[in-house]
Design brief:
Layout: E1 5-6, E2 14-17, E3 21-30, E4 36-42, E5 50-57, E6 65-74, E7 78-82, E8 90-96
Antiparallel strand pairs: 1-8, 2-7, 3-6, 3-8, 4-5, 4-7
Length: 97
């Protein structure tokens, strides 16, 4: 049975994995009152380099958005970038193997 690891729910930018891995999926929910940009990079330390996914959360619905990434290879690791500012916020989990 195939399995994957999870970042757990994150509300701020963070290193998800510092090693080569497969990006399986991303789950994101808007928690602030204003649109929020969520990005995942092929990088183990910063929001730079190859951008693997971009989610623009624009509605105040409580639905969670899921991106199925089909096992995209992140050669350098995974870095989650969540935009910051007044009324901006998101709860995001990243699943990887």
């Amino acid at each position: 049975m195939a399995s994957c690891r999870s970042s757990g729910v994150l509300t701020a930018s963070a290193v998800v994995s510092a090693e080569r891995c497969k990006l399986v999926s991303i789950h994101a929910q808007l928690t602030g009152a204003n649109p929020t940009l969520v990005r995942v990079f092929d990088n183990s330390s910063a929001a730079s380099g190859k951008e693997l996914a971009r989610i623009n959360l624009v509605t105040s619905k409580t639905d969670t958005i899921e991106f199925d990434m089909h096992g995209v290879i992140a050669s350098n690791g995974l870095y989650l970038d969540i935009a910051t500012g007044t009324g901006i916020g998101a709860a995001v989990s990243v699943e990887f193997a």
